[in-house]
Design goal:
heterodimer, A: Immunoglobulin-like, five-stranded mixed beta sheet, four-stranded mixed beta sheet, B: 11 helices, 43% helix, 0% strand
């Protein structure tokens, strides 16, 4: 903020000093001053956003609008090294091995990345908002992203960026949600996800390819960041169950009492 | 000449049966219909599909216990033989066709049941899965072959068979002995081993052997198995799709019947 103010003073000073030289210069200087004012205003806004990314400040800011559930999912057990799966076909694209990392734990905080956290509000949400688009990218024989939470009604957009054939076989509770062939150079395939639950995504052509899409009927979910943190807002106050899921660590459930306002901290640990 | 007459008669029979499935109209689905269907189901279907439709009937214990196919679990599993996009429920006509024709090598034809009984049992089977009430399946357009099979069409279909990696599962000659199948990499939606269809044997084509049947299988895929839908890949490529159909049919030993 200080540097911005200094910039404004310099510009204003220059403007006053040269304002008398010519009408054209005067116009340019006025424009410069207005632009600088805009820059200072917008930078100030950016700074306030940056300030809000600080967890404590952010939660304080949001809590004014309603309850917020924040927390961390952690794991202190042994973390297996990523496994190298040998590739037996399409090695010119996939490589000779594909490294599969299913568990990522931050060494300092023990936070687990890519955990899906959901709070069951116990009530359906009629307004689904704008259609959420989830990319399922096939690239170098790996699905990107590996894990993502979605709302019912979201559209899966499946792309094949490889010059080899893939198929994307998405299933839910042993039922096929879609199973589409993706020829090299073909366009994306779009499919609306209409049912809630854990969708397992596989490629039958390359059996080491796997991903997950967790679909919920309400918006009260999040995916943990690199240090295992999550944040869910907009919940109705009351007794709810928070559930977390990780592809190798499994599931945890915990009852929470969401207050009418403020921040509720909920930490969960996989044993 | 005699060969052509036989071919013509066969085509007329196929067309007539296809037409009857398309226009078979399901009666009103109500408690009375489902009650009648339950009686038929317990007599004809429960032995394999189980009393609750979970695919766990007494005979099902022996069929597909360790490998696919196995009796369908109507409560959760997908339906293979549909005219709808991958992931969609089958239409009433799809179910009527399967019940009437059966599945070669696995499920008998129930053509011996009256049409009313077949519709009643379909109504009862649909009551096992709420998705039948929640979703309105839309059949894909399955046209008649726009041009007859020819050497050029079959040759182009052979190239597409390789381009679309059909050989990886079905093998170079369609025997179902592709590398993925031989390695045991193919699994159904429950993780059971499943082998690729033998395209050189008509009896192995569970979804029918007419050109439109093969086209339908390509477009819809066989849900619950590794066989994907090529509907999006072949969209706007009608000629390619039919070339592939002609090539697949040329792999079977009865290829002469389909030269018209």
């Amino acid at each position: 903020m200080g540097s911005c103010a200094l910039h404004l003073i310099v510009v204003l000073g220059e403007g006053v000093a040269t304002m008398v030289t010519s009408p054209l210069n005067r116009m340019l200087q006025v424009w410069h001053v207005l632009w600088s004012l805009f820059v200072v205003w917008s930078l100030g806004d950016v700074q306030s956003v940056a300030y809000a990314t600080d967890p404590a400040a952010r939660n304080e800011a949001v809590s004014a609008a309603g309850p917020v559930v924040v927390g961390q999912v952690s794991y202190r057990g042994p973390v297996p090294a990523p496994s190298d799966v040998p590739v037996d076909r399409d090695s010119e694209v996939c490589g000779h091995v594909v490294t599969v990392a299913t568990l990522s734990v931050d060494a300092a905080t023990h936070g687990v990345r890519d955990v899906i956290v959901h709070v069951d509000s116990g009530q359906g949400v009629a307004d689904h908002g704008p259609v959420q688009v989830s990319i399922v990218q096939n690239k170098r024989c790996v699905f990107y992203p590996r894990v993502a939470p979605l709302r019912v009604g979201a559209e899966a957009e499946i792309r094949n960026d490889d010059p080899v054939m893939h198929n994307t076989n998405m299933s839910l509770h042993h039922g096929t949600v879609l199973n589409v062939a993706l020829v090299p150079g073909g366009g994306p395939v779009k499919k609306q996800l209409k049912r809630q639950g854990l969708h397992v995504v596989k490629c039958n052509v390359h059996k080491f390819m796997q991903a997950y899409r967790y679909v919920f009927s309400d918006p009260f979910f999040d995916q943990t960041n690199d240090v295992g943190q999550f944040r869910i807002q907009g919940l109705p106050p009351g007794l709810h169950t928070v559930s977390v899921w990780h592809e190798t660590l499994g599931e945890l459930h915990k009852e929470i009492q969401v207050p009418p306002r403020g921040v509720l901290n909920v930490d969960l640990e996989f044993k | 000449m005699r060969k052509h007459i036989i071919t013509l008669v066969a085509m007329l029979i196929v067309c007539a049966s296809e037409t009857s499935f398309v226009f078979a109209v399901k009666p009103e689905d109500n408690r009375v219909t489902r009650g009648k269907g339950k009686v038929v189901y317990e007599r004809a279907c429960a032995m394999c599909h189980g009393g609750d439709g979970k695919g766990d009937g007494a005979a099902g214990w022996f069929i597909g216990r360790y490998s696919s196919p196995h009796p369908r679990d109507f409560t959760t599993e997908s339906f293979k033989f549909r005219s709808t996009a991958s992931g969609e429920m089958p239409t009433d006509q799809d179910l009527f066709r399967t019940v009437t024709q059966g599945i070669p090598g696995y499920m008998p034809s129930f053509n011996g049941l009256s049409e009313e009984e077949r519709w009643a049992v379909i109504a009862y089977v649909q009551s096992f899965n709420s998705m039948f009430k929640e979703e309105k399946p839309t059949p894909l357009s399955i046209p008649d072959p726009p041009f007859p099979s020819s050497e050029a069409s079959i040759e182009n279909g052979r190239k597409l068979y390789v381009k679309y990696s059909c050989d990886h599962c079905h093998g170079d000659n369609g025997y179902g002995d592709g590398p993925e199948s031989l390695k045991g990499n193919l699994k159904d939606s429950r993780g059971r081993s499943i082998s690729a269809g033998n395209l050189s044997d008509r009896a192995s084509m569970k979804n029918g052997t007419a050109p439109r049947d093969i086209y339908r299988s390509l477009m819809t895929g066989l849900d619950g198995t590794p066989m994907p839908s090529f509907g999006d890949s072949l969209q706007g490529k009608e000629k390619e799709a039919w070339d592939l159909v002609h090539y697949i049919l040329s792999l079977s030993s009865e290829r002469g019947l389909l030269r018209w």
